[in-house]
Inverse folding.
């Protein structure tokens, strides 16, 4: 009985093993059910924010506003001036637009180094000041990105700029101080533009005071220049009008000139002194005039021979040599017979006493009047 029981158990186990193996083999022969792929979301590639925006009308308008807060130095000798300015640039770039609801703000702002670093990561018109004489002495930056894609870049700068001064009419001159803005992009891609808001924002406060100068207005002149690449690039020049105050310069020349010419004129033309003393007076006056012209060239090294001061000095020299020649010939007692005798020489001398100084005054007055603005 026990053996029969063991037999049945063994038989049952074998049967289960056979049945299990058959099911496994059958399952391996059946094809696997198809797997439905899960669709991947379509990602629309956003254009890089630091590349030139091609999805806007060209040329892109870069709006410019400029405020001159102060002019601290105008240096004639070096052809430079130093100014504190505020520069505002504004342009539209749809690549910088963002959802204000998602970000919780309609404007993103960056200040200082953050503004500079952020600007380096986005497209900007690459505007520079062309006539910088050296690196800015001071620079502050602010950057604002609006949800609609408008970008505003503000700079507060203290800069030394180059200028070409015209000093022929010094010290009665009016100088134009330029601030030239250029871009690395050609005129087919960007242009400088000014709205009424930019014009109203720009200018120079009339309360600015610079010793020896009177401030005028600021005007903007757009133009193009040919770059090294052969293309035309946009340029906008802010021109600051400055009028020089001559009051501090006139005494430096006209008072010494008057004294240098007065002494020999009185001694040689209005007194009956000996010929030797009259000749010595003119010679001493000429040497003093040479010293005065040298002092003038040292004090005002930027002035050329076409300047008013040097023209007046040249007239002074001409007056001295003419006076010397008159005393050595017409007013020389030993040569009276050559000029018609004693009485004719006396009449000529009386005429020359007032006509020579009057002619000098007329010529100097003419030079000064022509130099006036």
């Amino acid at each position: 009985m026990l053996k029969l029981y063991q037999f049945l158990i063994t038989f049952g186990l074998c049967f289960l093993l056979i049945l299990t193996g058959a099911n496994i083999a059958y399952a391996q022969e059946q094809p696997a059910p198809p797997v439905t792929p899960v669709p991947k979301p379509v990602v629309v590639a956003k254009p890089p924010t630091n590349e030139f925006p091609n999805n806007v009308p060209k040329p892109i308008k870069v709006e410019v506003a400029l405020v001159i807060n102060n002019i601290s130095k105008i240096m004639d000798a070096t052809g430079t001036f130093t100014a504190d300015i505020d520069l505002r640039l504004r342009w539209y770039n749809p690549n910088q637009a963002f959802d204000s609801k998602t970000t919780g703000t309609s404007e993103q702002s960056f200040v200082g180094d953050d503004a500079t670093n952020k600007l380096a990561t986005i497209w900007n018109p690459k505007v520079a000041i062309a006539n910088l004489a050296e690196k800015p002495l001071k620079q502050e930056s602010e950057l604002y990105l609006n949800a609609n894609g408008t970008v505003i870049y503000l700079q507060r700068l203290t800069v030394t700029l180059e200028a070409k001064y015209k000093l022929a009419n010094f010290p009665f001159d009016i100088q134009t101080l330029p601030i030239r803005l250029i871009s690395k992009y050609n005129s087919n891609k960007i242009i400088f533009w000014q709205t009424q808001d930019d014009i109203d924002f720009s200018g120079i406060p009339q309360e600015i005071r610079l010793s020896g100068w009177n401030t005028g207005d600021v005007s903007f002149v757009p133009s193009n220049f040919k770059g090294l690449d052969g293309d035309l690039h946009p340029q906008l020049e802010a021109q600051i009008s400055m009028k020089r105050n001559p009051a501090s310069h006139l005494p430096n020349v006209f008072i010494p000139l008057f004294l240098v010419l007065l002494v020999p004129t009185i001694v040689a033309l209005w007194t009956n002194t000996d010929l030797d003393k009259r000749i010595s007076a003119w010679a001493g006056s000429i040497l003093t005039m040479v010293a005065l012209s040298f002092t003038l060239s040292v004090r005002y090294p930027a002035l050329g021979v076409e300047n008013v001061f040097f023209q007046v000095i040249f007239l002074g020299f001409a007056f001295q040599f003419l006076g010397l020649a008159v005393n050595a010939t017409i007013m020389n007692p030993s040569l009276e017979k050559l000029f018609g005798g004693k009485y004719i020489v006396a009449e000529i001398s009386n005429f020359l006493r007032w006509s020579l100084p009057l002619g000098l005054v007329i010529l100097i007055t003419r030079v000064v009047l022509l130099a006036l603005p």
Notes: The longest helix spans residues 342-371. Confidence is low (pLDDT under 50) at residues 41-45. Helices lie at 2-29, 100-103, 113-121, 196-201, 250-269, 275-299, 308-328, 342-371. The CA atoms of residues 52 and 123 lie 6 Å apart.
